[in-house]
Amino acid sequence: MSEPISISTGIAARYATAVFELAKEGKALKALEKDITALEDAYGSSADFRDLVSSPLYSRVQQGDAIAAISKKMKLSDIVANTLNLMASKRRLFVLPQLTTALRGLIADENGEVMADVIAAKALTKAQQDKLAKTLKASVGKDVKINTSVDESLIGGLIVKVGSKMIDTSIRSKLASLQNSMKEVG
Predict the structure, then answer these.
(1) Dihedral angle of Cα 148, 166, 169, 36, to the nearest 10 degrees
(2) Do 115 and 108 form a contact (C-beta atoms < 8 A)?
(3) Exposed, middle or buried by CB within 10 Å (0-12, 13-18, 19+), for 3?
(4) Is the pLDDT of residue 3 over 80?
(5) What are the tens digits of pLDDT across the range 74-130?
(6) Residue (of 10, 9, 33, 7) closest to 20 by Cα position
(7) Per-residue b/e over 5-31, b at no fewer than 16 CB within 10 Å?
(8) DSSP string computed for 97-152
(9) Cβ atoms within 10 A of the Cβ of 94, count?
């Protein structure tokens, strides 16, 4: 199971590096960041877009035509639009989620920031996000940009991933730990 994920991540990393370098040379990092946000929003909110990106039923031509129309409608920069067209022609659109994640990481590195993925049992308020970012900054030593998502199965608490470190304070993990301890005793 991990092999396809690592292959996708590797493909996405190569595209991300190329796109990032082109945007950096063209002094278009702000436009790139705006495009990434637009793509993430579209991917998260549109089942049709997710199907287009991941379904093998669409031909290269169909994907290319659709991506060209979407890029024009979303007013994506030429760098991102051309990259998406290239990815469609090479049947690599399926790595779009990993591409946006990799680009966010490269932009954060350029800005002296670090990305923190936070999964919470319920949506965090702006004040909670700011307090968490401040706490993580003290721990990591860099400005922290927080990418939040909600997973109600956590029951309560947070899972925070910063680089290769993960902190799991969720009630779900504490209950699982307690359950394992009880199995060892009995």
Answers:
(1) 0
(2) yes
(3) exposed
(4) no
(5) 999 999 999 999 999 999 999 999 999 999 989 988 998 998 999 999 999 999 999
(6) 33
(7) eeebbebbbebbeebbebbeeeebbeb
(8) HHHHHHHHHHHHHHTTEEEEEEEESSPPPHHHHHHHHHHHHHHHSSEEEEEEEE-G
(9) 17
In degrees rounded to 5, what are phi and psi of residue 26?
-85, 5
CB count within 10 Å of CB 177 equals: 11
60, 65, 68, 72 alpha-carbon torsion, rounded to 10°: -160
Would residue 167 be called left, alpha or beta, if left means φ above 0 and alpha means ψ between -120 and 50 degrees?
A: beta
d(CA 16, CA 166): 24
Confidence of residue 184 (pLDDT cuts 50, 70, 90): confident
Going 35 to 23 to 140 to 14, the CA torsion angle's sign is: positive
* CA 100 centroid distance within chain: 6
How does residue 47 score in pLDDT terms, banded at 50, 70 and 90? very high
Query: Residue 31 is encoded by which pair of tokens?
Result: 């436009």
DSSP labels, 46-57: -HHHHHHHH-TT
186 touches 162 (CB < 8 A):
no
